[in-house]
Amino acid sequence: MSALLEARGLKKRFGGNEAVSNVSFVVNAGECVVLAGDNGAGKSTVIKMISGVYTPTEGEVHFDGRLITGRSAEAVRSAGIETIYQDLALADNLDPGLNLYLGRERTRRILGLPFLDRKAMRRDAVDVLKSLGIVVPDPTLPVRDLSGGQRQSIAIARAIHWQAKLVIMDEPTAALGVPEQREVMALIGRLKSQGVGIILISHNLPDIFAAADRIIVLARGVVAGERRPSETNDEEIVRMMMGATL
Amino acid sequence: MTDTTAKNKTGALILRSLLNGWSWLFLIGILVFFEAYARIQTGDTFLLRLYSIQSIAIAASQILLLALGLTLVIVAGHIDLSIGFTTGLSAVVMALIIRLIGADAGWFAVIGGIAVGLFAAMVVGLVNGWLVAILNVPSFIGTLGTYGIARGMALIVAGGATVSIRSEEARSIGNGDILGVPVPVLIAGLLALACHYVLQHTKFGVHTYALGANRASVERAGVDVKRHLIQLFVISALTAGVGGLIYTGRFSAGAANAGEPILLYAVAAVFIGGASLTGGQGTVIGTVIGAFIIAVIQFGLVFSGLPPYWQFVAVGLVIIVAVLVDQSRDRLLQGAGP
């Protein structure tokens, strides 16, 4: 089986600085790959090259059998890669249904005029969230009234509702309490079981070991090593993050 | 645990509806107050006569024509101060065009005046949109600039004077009525309906709310935010422009300062109606209530024979109450919400 995503020899130079060099890895369907590394290790630069925000200076990204290097962020999204940023990019004053459909709202015609179909969008949101094991107490409330974990789940629901095959998550548990962190971890498990590939960015060791099928450690812009959680431990990962290549 | 959250939730719900509905209660309150005052003082009714209702509705519709488009701009997290003189510019331009074509030309002259007047307003809206969306000028400052430019242009084209016209057709727009409903009220009502539809029931409206809450949310959803902002400022300028056309009809003259006295009332009506300076909140219905509150205060004071200057004090107080309610909304709901 060929990989869902394959990054080959990615390099990004900003002016004279080489932020990332020769980064290669694969992500299979239904697999969670963690990009681990300290601040400034190049994790964000790598995912931005995949999501189309940056064009790599060198290297290629293949997704679903096609070369997607150099495509715009919009084109990468419609190819099936969704990125969930730390700030989630939700409209806090709108309900989950409208957030799910933002930019692609459903309408129905009354006397020839298009009207938003708020009810249908809300119903779909409740369904998608339920498939992720999340129950929102009152789906008519704006998402600002939801918990951090529920808000995260809406951002994830938006990704899978639009048939994303690969979801990139940037530090999804950074702003959450412990129970909500568990919720997000469980959510990642469910996404995997639905065959979605995941790239998780994290420097939180418990998260890394809880979620990862494979851990790719970046240090100073290069891959310091790749491990399966069963073959390694906290100490080794930390050492690799600090730049001791093994 | 679930019990207390459920209790908190109903508490939050009641609190929310109170905070959102206070302007309705306030409007009813001042109507009752003026009615009681009139009955005690003169033994006569204040509200239950056609003249009062028409006067209040006309005053409210003047405010509304500036406030309707402004509501959309404020929901998106911006402001448009230029509307005060966009109104004046379109009033003056309409009057000049009618003069130019000749009032003898009847409806032809009036429709020409309306078209060019609205075009002048639209230009101001496009400039505002260009400043805010393309050049990233903060809207408060950008539209303060175009406020001055529109004012100057209106005075320049009018030669610093009021441009009077003698057109029966124009007069009928400002002073006519259909089945007892004054034409300006009818026009403002239809525009309010249209703006309500746009804000509550269209994609454009949802994107406006989302833009006010979090620009990144709409940008990442693939919405062309710049285009959206330009459209908002054009809508705002056009409703203000309609206000100018009605002014010229009402007074058979175009004046550069037609909208100036109403600008602050229009801004006030939007905030009394539940909008927030930070954006993401506010409704057209709220703005309509806000405009009526101000109109009732204006007319009620005149009717009761109190010095009319009290209207400034009263409206000022209502604005402060509105802001306090808006501020406490977040705090109170955070305490009570889940």
What does this structure look like?
With 246 residues, chain A is α/β, with parallel strands linked by helices. Chain A has 2 domains: 1-80 and 165-246, Rossmann fold; 95-163, no CATH class. Helices cover 33% and strands 28% of the residues of chain A. Chain A is built from 8 helices and 12 strands. Chain A has a 6-stranded mixed β-sheet with strand order 6-9-10-3-11-12, sandwiched between helices. In chain A, strands 2-1-4-5 form a 4-stranded antiparallel β-sheet, with helices on one face. In chain A, a hairpin with a 2-residue loop joins strand 7 (107-110) and strand 8 (113-116). In chain A, helix 5 (148-161) packs parallel to helix 6. The radius of gyration of chain A is 19 Å and the shape is globular. Chain B starts with a helix and ends with a helix. Chain B is mostly helical. The longest helix of chain B has 41 residues, at 2-42. In chain B, a hairpin with a 2-residue loop joins strand 2 (177-178) and strand 3. Chain B is globular. Chain B has a single domain (48-328), classed as ABC transporter involved in vitamin B12 uptake, BtuC (Orthogonal Bundle). Chain B has a two-stranded antiparallel sheet with strand order 1-4. Chain B has 13 helices and 4 strands. Chains A and B meet through strand 8 of A and helix 7, helix 8 and helix 9 of B.
Short structural description:
The complex is a heterodimer of chains A (246) and B (338). Chain A is built from eight helices and twelve strands.
**How many domains comprise the coordinates of chain A?**
2
CATH topology of chain B: ABC transporter involved in vitamin B12 uptake, BtuC
Under the CATH scheme, the architecture of chain B is: Orthogonal Bundle
- Structure summary, number of beta strands of chain B: 4
Strand order of the largest sheet of chain A: 6-9-10-3-11-12
Number of helices of chain B: 13
Helix content of chain A: 25-40%
